């Protein structure tokens, strides 16, 4: 009887380990996202030390571009050495950067802390690394749902951190608020201890081998650089970063300019986080049944349509809440779709690096979106130019993403050898 029962133990152990990885990934992603998406709350308070809108925007844009540039390399390290050590180191850099920001006396401190150091920290605690471990931890048929679930849970903290951050600023000042955020970032390093050492243990048993898994990193990068679908998706992802980071940083300031209370901006960001949990989960389920490339294109299109509607109507508390809810439903819904496409086309062996290069485009877009908002406002006293840029780039992303070629390199090579009809 004991011989029959013994084989069940590894399965129970594997299930327990998988559940732990998913829970830890969701918690870390939630803290990382909540802190990052609350940064726009500090724009007005930090004006007391002479930081203008464009200077603040540059620091956050610097964070975005450093996040993007470092993401492929951090992804490579996670692929090679495992997620745990990468997340621990990144979380500590993140916390140190926020402490530097809390003690800043000029824009230089903001650039170093909230810009450069936080950029590295977010790269190692955000979507790129977390989606890698989630994708490896579950079977292919459950991958989209698992990624969607973790990405959805990863937004839960935003609806708490944003209002809490606004309360800290109002009650204790922006320096104390940054310090508390630093403590939150350090908690991510503690959580990452649960990942253990070495490469992700579940990867070998959960991931299904593909022909692309036999390629070395230089080989798969060369193939990706000539894959038209991968290129189209990478370029289109620029629009996602452009739109979302502009909204994260500049929406609170835009609402104040429109005569609405500053607290409404924090509430709107919290609503975005709450609705994102629903939207990302639902899109993750849809991605398991329908074309991921077409769903991704529709996210870009619908998001852009809601921006047009928001600008066309008088700005009020009600219209802002509707806009925040709509954007929240579409916010991180791209995560299960993009990660699913990368895994489906190229396999999971080099997922971190390949997703990292796609995400670099996203962060270049974030850099441009944040910076354009700050420059446009300082130059014209209005955000109109930046809003129009969001609309134009969103439409272009839809046009690029809809016809994406999502065949694997092996499938493309096989099709090329077929004789013409």
Q: Describe the biggest sheet?
A: none
What fraction of the residues are assigned to beta strands by DSSP? under 5%
Average pLDDT works out at: 85
Helix content: over 70%
State the CATH superfamily name. Answer: MFS general substrate transporter like domains
Structural class: mainly alpha
Main traits of this protein?
single chain; 421 residues; disordered N terminus; Growth Hormone, Chain: A; mainly alpha
Tell me what the structure shows.
The protein is an all-alpha fold and 421 residues long. It has one domain (18-406): Growth Hormone, Chain: A, CATH 1.20.1250.20. It is built from 19 helices and no strands. Helix 2 crosses helix 7, helix 3 packs parallel to helix 5 (107-125) and helix 8 packs antiparallel against helix 9 (174-192). It is globular. The N and C termini lie far apart (61 Å). Mean pLDDT is 85; it is low at 1-11 and 201-207.
């Amino acid at each position: 009887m004991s011989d029959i029962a013994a084989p069940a133990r590894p399965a129970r152990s594997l299930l327990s380990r998988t559940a732990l990885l998913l829970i830890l990934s969701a918690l870390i992603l939630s803290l990382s996202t909540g802190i990052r998406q609350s940064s726009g709350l500090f724009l007005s308070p930090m004006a007391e030390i002479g930081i203008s809108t464009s200077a603040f925007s540059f620091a956050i844009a610097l964070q975005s571009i450093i996040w993007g540039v470092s993401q492929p390399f951090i992804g490579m390290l996670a692929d090679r050495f495992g997620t745990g050590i990468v997340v621990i180191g990144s979380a500590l850099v993140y916390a140190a950067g926020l402490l530097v920001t809390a003690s800043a006396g000029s824009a230089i401190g903001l650039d170093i802390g909230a810009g450069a150091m936080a950029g590295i920290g977010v790269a190692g605690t955000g979507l790129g690394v977390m989606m890698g471990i989630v994708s490896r931890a579950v079977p292919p048929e459950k991958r989209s749902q698992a990624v969607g679930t973790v990405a959805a849970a990863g937004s839960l903290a935003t609806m708490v951190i944003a209002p809490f951050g606004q309360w800290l600023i109002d009650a204790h000042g922006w320096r104390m608020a940054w310090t508390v955020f630093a403590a939150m970032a350090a908690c991510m390093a503690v959580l990452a201890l649960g990942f253990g050492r070495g490469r992700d243990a579940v990867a070998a048993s959960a991931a299904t081998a593909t022909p692309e898994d036999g390629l070395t990193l230089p080989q798969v990068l060369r193939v990706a650089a000539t894959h038209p679908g991968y290129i189209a998706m990478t370029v289109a992802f620029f629009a996602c970063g452009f739109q979302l980071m502009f909204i994260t940083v500049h929406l609170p300031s835009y609402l104040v300019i429109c005569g609405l209370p500053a607290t409404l901006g924090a509430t709107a960001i919290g609503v975005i986080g709450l609705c994102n949990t629903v939207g990302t989960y639902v899109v993750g389920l849809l991605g398991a049944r329908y074309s991921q490339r077409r769903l991704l294109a529709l996210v870009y299109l619908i998001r852009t349509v809601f921006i047009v509607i928001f600008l066309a109507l008088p700005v009020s508390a009600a219209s802002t809440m509707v806009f925040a809810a709509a954007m929240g439903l579409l916010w991180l819904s791209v995560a299960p779709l993009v990660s699913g496409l990368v895994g489906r086309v190229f396999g999971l062996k080099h997922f971190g690096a390949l997703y990292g290069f796609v995400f670099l485009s996203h962060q270049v877009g974030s850099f441009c979106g944040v910076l354009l908002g700050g420059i446009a406002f300082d130059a014209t006293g209005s955000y109109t130019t930046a809003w129009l840029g969001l609309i134009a780039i969103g439409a272009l992303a839809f046009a690029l993403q809809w016809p994406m070629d999502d065949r694997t390199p092996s499938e493309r090579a096989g099709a090329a050898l077929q004789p013409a009809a």
